[in-house]
Amino acid sequence: MTANLKRVVVAGGTGLVGRPLVQALVDLGADVTVMTRNPGRGGLPAGASARGWEDLATTLNGADAVINLAGEGIADKRWSAARKAVLLTSRVETTQRLVEAMRACPQPPAALVNASAIGFYVPADREPVDETSDSGMGFLAEVCRAWEVEAMAAAAFGVRVALVRVGVVLAKEGGALPKMALPVRWFHGCKLGRGTQGLSWIHLDDLVAMFVEAARNPAWRGAFNGTAPKPLSNGAFTRALAQRLHRPLLPVPGFLTAAATKLVLGELAEALLLQGAFVKPTRPLAQGFQFRFPTAEMALENLL
Ligand SMILES: NC(=O)c1ccc[n+]([C@@H]2O[C@H](COP(=O)([O-])OP(=O)(O)OC[C@H]3O[C@@H](n4cnc5c(N)ncnc54)[C@H](OP(=O)(O)O)[C@@H]3O)[C@@H](O)[C@H]2O)c1
After folding, report:
1. Which position among 29, 125, 176, 289 has the lowest Cβ density within 10 Å, counted as fewest Cβ atoms?
2. What's the pLDDT at 173?
3. Nearest to 11 by CA among 28, 32, 36
């Protein structure tokens, strides 16, 4: 049984995931409010309106669902201590503000669907992980745990909370895919590091559908992996990309690409590119969620 989404608030609804998600909710007939730091910017689909982060309780009161995607871009800049603090607080403090405002609502929203990330898990080269697996060490896992704890606090006053641990989002419009495809197109493609590290990806359309389902289906409660059923290694994904683009790959030794990536990107290279987990979406599949793009070949054929 899915609930009818009449009014939905999307925090951070102006980004890569937010824009098509807002459009999908409008297409379903929902009245969508986008919470943004810049409500005057415009560019939202007809049927959606923008609000700032002030007077939150008025914005949230009586909503059928709040979807929270807000947070500074994890891979936008090198990680200094100051940048790491911004990445953490832009997630934890915004979520805390949302949850406190929900608590103050005369009629709290029915559901909170909060983004998290697969950085939650321990990186592993072979053994797949799912929602039952342990959380890892390191900065990304720390951010994800703190972010999830803030979101789960809403359950204490009766809000249904679903967490979507998002994988590497594949989209035409931005995110990781155009950056990964560029060197392959220009005959400079190669695996990164050993190439055996997991690369758990999801097509943007499937992720949008998963957020919608989590918002409207009362059975979606707790953590769900926002990844496709067939995660690949970095090496296998790069080969699939090269095949799709009809380009050869360079046989560069792994230690060289690892050193170069670390030199350019610093700590985030290790955390995001040179390590990874094979993350399975066990709980979305158990709920009957159907992926339009279950394999990397299908996703890449659609996107490139
Ligand atoms: N894309 C991926 O591959 C990926 C992978 C794993 C997890 N995720 C997570 O999924 C969420 C959505 O991803 P996305 O790719 O759509 O991200 P995005 O394009 O960077 O959009 C994030 C949104 O958050 C808002 N935001 C940024 N800094 C903020 C701050 N300090 N305070 C309040 N709002 C802030 C921005 O909205 P305004 O500028 O309008 O305020 C922006 O539109 C993110 O939290 C991200 O960490 C994404």
Report:
1. 29
2. 86
3. 36
